[in-house]
Design goal:
Blueprint: E1 2-5, H1 11-21, H2 27-41, E2 50-55, E3 58-70, E4 78-88, H3 96-103, E5 110-113, H4 118-126, E6 130-131, E7 135-140, H5 141-144, E8 152-156, H6 167-178, E9 182-188, E10 191-202, E11 205-213, H7 216-221, H8 223-231, E12 237-242, E13 252-254, E14 261-262, E15 271-272, H9 277-280
C-alpha cells in the first residue's frame, strides 16, 4: 500500500472518501471543512494535511494528518500532527496497522489522535501512542455560572487591550476565531492568559471543548466567569480530557469517550489542540446571544 499526499486539487476525491467512511457528516460538510484545512496547510509548506491510501492505482482509503506548530506555552516550538478520520475500504482493512505505522513514521513529530474509535485506539497503541487521558470531564455550565468570580475574569478577544498579549498569542486567537472558535483570555490579578474553546456536541446537546489553556488549574480558578461567557452562546457544558474529575466538584466524568492519545508518551499540564480536527470539524456554529 502506498501513500499519496492530498493537495488542493484533491478535495472532491477526499470528500468522497470521507463521506463513505464517516457518513454521519454529509459530503458537503466534509468538502467545506476540507477547503478550510487545505488553506491551513498552505501556511505549512511540505506538510500535507492528509494522505490517500493507494492499492494498485486506486485510492482505497484516507487519513488526515493535520499539521500545527505548537508554540503557545512551549519553551521550544515543536511540530505536531493530528491524525484524524482514518478510513480503509473493508477489503483492505487488514492493512490498517501497517498503514498507520507509515503515517506516523517521523520520529521528530508529535502525533496525536483525539477521537479514535475503539479499534483505532488499539492500532495506535501498537504504533507508539500512549493514552494521556482516561476520559472527559463535562461541566454543566448553568451550575458553574453560579460560582463567584473571585480574582478572575474572562476577557473576550475583541476586548483584550492592545499589547496585553504577545503577537503570537493574538494571532493564534484571531486565527481560531475566524474558524468559528470562542476565543479570549483569562485575567487573574495582572496576568492575562489566552484560552480557546470549540463548539462540540454530546448526545445532541451543544457544548464547548477546551482547545487551548495554560493548564486546567487556570480553568478551575476562572470557571465562573468562563461559564457565564459560554452561556451567552446557548451552550450546555464545558468539556476537556482528563484522568478524573478531581478538582471540579459537580462535574461529570465520562470514560466512554475516546482518550487523548499521543506519541509524546508523557502527560503535560498544557492543553493545546490548536489547528486540530476539533477546530476544523465543528458540528455547528456557536452564535452569541448579544455582543
Amino acid at each position: 500500500m502506498k501513500l499519496r499526499p492530498i493537495d488542493a486539487d484533491d478535495t472532491d476525491l477526499a470528500a468522497d472518501l470521507l463521506a463513505a467512511g464517516f457518513p454521519t457528516r454529509s459530503r458537503d460538510m466534509w468538502l467545506t471543512s476540507l477547503l478550510k484545512l487545505v488553506a491551513h496547510g498552505e501556511t505549512m509548506p511540505g506538510r500535507p494535511v492528509g494522505q490517500f491510501l493507494i492499492a494498485g492505482d486506486k485510492p482505497v482509503g484516507i487519513c488526515l494528518t493535520i499539521p500545527a506548530t505548537r508554540t503557545a506555552f512551549d519553551e521550544e516550538p515543536h511540530l505536531a500532527v493530528n491524525i484524524a478520520c482514518f478510513y480503509l475500504e473493508q477489503a483492505h482493512q487488514w492493512q490498517a496497522t501497517l498503514a498507520m505505522r507509515r503515517l506516523v513514521a517521523d520520529g521528530a513529530v508529535e502525533y496525536t489522535d483525539l477521537t479514535a474509535s475503539p479499534t483505532m485506539r488499539q492500532i495506535n497503541l501498537k504504533n507508539g501512542f500512549t493514552n494521556l487521558s482516561e476520559g472527559s470531564v463535562l461541566i454543566p455550565l448553568p451550575v458553574a455560572a453560579l460560582l463567584p468570580s473571585r480574582r478572575a475574569r474572562f476577557v473576550p478577544l475583541k476586548a483584550i487591550p492592545p499589547l496585553r498579549l504577545s503577537d503570537a498569542h493574538t494571532d493564534l486567537l484571531t486565527g481560531h476565531a475566524e474558524l468559528g472558535c470562542i476565543c479570549g483570555a483569562v485575567e487573574i490579578d495582572t496576568s492575562l492568559s489566552p484560552v480557546i474553546f470549540a463548539p462540540t456536541r454530546r448526545r445532541g446537546a451543544p457544548g464547548a471543548r477546551l482547545i487551548l489553556a495554560r493548564d486546567k488549574t487556570l480553568i478551575r480558578d476562572a470557571l465562573g466567569p468562563i461559564a457565564r461567557h459560554l452561556l451567552r452562546y446557548r451552550l450546555a457544558f464545558l468539556e476537556f480530557e482528563a484522568q478524573s474529575s478531581a478538582g471540579f466538584p459537580g462535574a461529570i466524568f465520562r470514560r466512554d469517550v475516546a482518550p487523548y492519545q499521543s506519541t509524546r508518551n508523557e502527560p503535560s499540564d498544557v492543553v493545546d489542540h490548536t489547528f486540530s480536527e476539533l477546530v476544523f470539524f465543528q458540528p455547528f456554529v456557536a452564535r452569541r446571544l448579544m455582543e
